[in-house]
Amino acid sequence: MKLLEERIKEDGQVRPGNILKVDSFLNHQLDISLLEQLGNEFYEKFKNKGITRILTIEASGIALACLAAQHFKVPVVFAKKAKSKNLDGELYTSTVHSFTYGKDFTVTLAKKFLSEDDTVLLIDDFLAVGKAMRGLIDICNQADAKIAGIGIAVEKGFQSGGKELREAGYDVYSLAIIDEMTDDGSITFRS
């Protein structure tokens, strides 16, 4: 999606260690107009898949998932990274490794919000090595929910996550795929 690529070029910052900082519009401060357009792009791709739920992981994927859900007119559920006192009942759990934070999280989702009757669109802001997405897939598998597709705002195509998920048969739709980032700030997108 050229609009997102242009915004990354304009406002993104490449940091050492293959980190792309897009906090001015995607995952700290939110450009709602941009997110609405990204959400519509996911809707156009997956609108005929019978989506009943959108699933993401706390926290950066929530805003994007919500704006996509407006188009699908379905609820958003998100896996929480910490078990809070207000989580009750039976839970799905999975362990995920955060590339950005460099640590493992046990994510949880109340079983009452996801079942075998659901057809799920997984959405997240970034895809690097795919650990967070594999955790969401694990939760869907525990629920016997059908995964219709995976929507990603920014995929780091030079890392293994997207390739492995596609090889496993998932319909991964990334709006911007980065083939290369250099410490001098240059970014090359897949055409």
From TrEMBL:
Pathway connected to this protein: Purine metabolism; XMP biosynthesis via salvage pathway; XMP from xanthine: step 1/1
EC category: transferase
UniProt KW Cell cycle keyword: no
Chain positions recorded as xanthine binding sites: 20, 27, 156
Binding-site residues for 5-phospho-alpha-D-ribose 1-diphosphate, renumbered to this chain: 128-132
Keywords, in A-Z order: Cytoplasm, Glycosyltransferase, Purine salvage, Transferase
Compartments it resides in: Cytoplasm
Catalytic reactions on record: XMP + diphosphate = xanthine + 5-phospho-alpha-D-ribose 1-diphosphate
One GO biological process term: purine ribonucleoside salvage
Occurrences of domain Phosphoribosyltransferase (ranges): 26-157
Annotated GO CC locations: cytoplasm
Entry EC number(s): 2.4.2.22
Alphabetical list of SUPFAM superfamilies matching this protein: PRTase-like
InterPro entries reported in the protein's UniProt record: PRTase-like, PRTase_dom, Pur/Pyrimidine_PRTase, Xanthine_PRibTrfase
Gene Ontology molecular function, alphabetical: xanthine phosphoribosyltransferase activity
Coiled-coil intervals, chain numbering: none
NCBIfam families assigned: PRK09219.1, XPRTase
Cited function: Converts the preformed base xanthine, a product of nucleic acid breakdown, to xanthosine 5'-monophosphate (XMP), so it can be reused for RNA or DNA synthesis.
Subunit and partners: Homodimer.
Similarity comment text for this entry: Belongs to the purine/pyrimidine phosphoribosyltransferase family. Xpt subfamily.
Name the record gives this protein: Xanthine phosphoribosyltransferase
Organism listed in the record: Oribacterium asaccharolyticum ACB7
